[in-house]
Write a structure and sequence with these properties.
The protein has 157 residues and is mainly beta.
């Protein structure tokens, strides 16, 4: 019996000499979502054929939500109460979205989502008058564009 007990103790000691430890290493990283854009021009004038074009250079490291809002819902004639309607066509290279919307529709904020991640891409924006301007004087509207990064596809909720 004593031999057996001695042998059992030696086996336990021998197995402890060869036991191994285990460790887990957790790797973490974080990059803050950033969306920035640069307009080609902040002031646009409609040509004689009723079209104005501009581009935005966009750099965004996550999907994004784009919001647009028109101050007047069209071109406001400064010498009268007349509002001239126009449409906005927006396309972005590298994204599947092509958006067409009227200035009247974006008088209340209009938003759409870009689910792709866009680095250094160009958005083409074309504004087209529904009808020619006929009254002498100045016309004006302001379109506010906001891009919000989102780490979840479909924009910020």
């Amino acid at each position: 019996m004593m031999k057996r007990l001695t042998w059992l103790v030696l086996c336990c000691l021998a197995s402890n000499a060869y036991s191994n430890d285990e460790v887990s290493i957790t790797l973490l990283g974080y990059i803050a979502p950033v969306c920035e854009f640069t307009p080609q021009s902040n002031n646009l004038a409609f040509s004689s054929n009723g079209i104005a074009n501009t581009t935005l250079v966009i750099n965004c490291n996550s999907p994004m939500r784009i919001s647009m809002q028109s101050l007047n819902g069209g071109l406001s004639h400064e010498q009268s109460n007349n509002i001239s309607s126009y449409n906005i066509n927006w396309s972005l290279e590298g994204a599947k979205n092509v958006v067409s919307v009227s200035a009247q529709a974006i008088k209340s904020t209009y938003s759409f989502d870009i689910n792709e991640i866009i680095f250094d891409s160009v958005a083409q924006i074309q504004l087209t008058l529904d009808d020619p301007l006929i009254y002498a004087g100045s016309y004006q509207d302001v379109i506010r564009i906001e891009m919000t990064p989102s780490v979840v596809s479909g924009g910020v909720l």
